[in-house]
Design a protein that fits this description.
This protein is of the alpha+beta class. It is built from five helices and five strands. Helix content is 40%, strand content 18%.
Length: 137
C-alpha cells in the first residue's frame, strides 16, 4: 500500500498561516497578454478564486482592475519562490522586467538583482505564450 499524501494547513488563533511563497501571472489565452501579476503565501488556486469572487478590491484585484474579466479566458501560471527572497521585491522586479521587455528598455539594478529568480519565470512565460499561438490550442 502506498503512503497517503497530506498537507498540513496551519491555523493559529483563528488565522490561516501562509505555507508557501508564490508568484503568479494571469495570461489572456486569446492574445497571450499579461493581465495581472501577483504574489502570495497562500495556495495560488485560492488566490485566483479570491481575485474573481471577492468584492473586497484588496482581495479581488483582478475583478477590480482587469477590464471585462468575466468575458475573457485566462491561464494563471504559478511559480514557487525560494525561501530566501521576499515576494513583494520579486514581484516588483518581474513587473518591471515585463514592462521593460515590452518597451525594450534596459533592466534596472533592482530587477537585475532578482534575475536568477525572474529569468526562468520570464522564459517559462514566453514559452507558454508561444504555445498559445500554436494552431492546435
Amino acid at each position: 500500500m502506498e503512503p497517503v499524501e497530506y498537507r498540513v494547513i496551519t491555523v493559529r488563533q483563528g488565522t490561516v498561516r501562509p505555507s508557501g511563497s508564490w508568484l503568479y501571472v494571469w495570461v489572456d489565452t486569446v492574445d497571450g497578454a499579461v493581465a495581472y501579476v501577483g504574489a502570495t503565501g497562500f495556495d495560488p488556486e485560492l488566490r485566483a478564486h479570491l481575485h474573481l469572487m471577492s468584492d473586497n478590491p484588496d482581495h479581488g484585484r483582478v475583478r477590480a482592475s482587469v477590464p471585462h474579466y468575466r468575458e475573457r479566458d485566462f491561464d494563471v501560471l504559478a511559480f514557487s519562490l525560494p525561501d530566501n527572497v521576499k515576494r513583494p521585491d520579486v514581484k516588483a522586479a518581474l513587473v518591471e522586467q515585463l514592462a521593460a521587455h515590452s518597451r525594450t528598455a534596459k533592466e534596472s539594478a533592482e530587477a537585475d538583482k532578482f534575475s536568477d529568480v525572474t529569468g526562468p519565470i520570464i522564459e517559462a512565460l514566453e514559452n507558454y505564450r508561444n504555445q498559445l499561438q500554436q494552431p492546435s490550442r
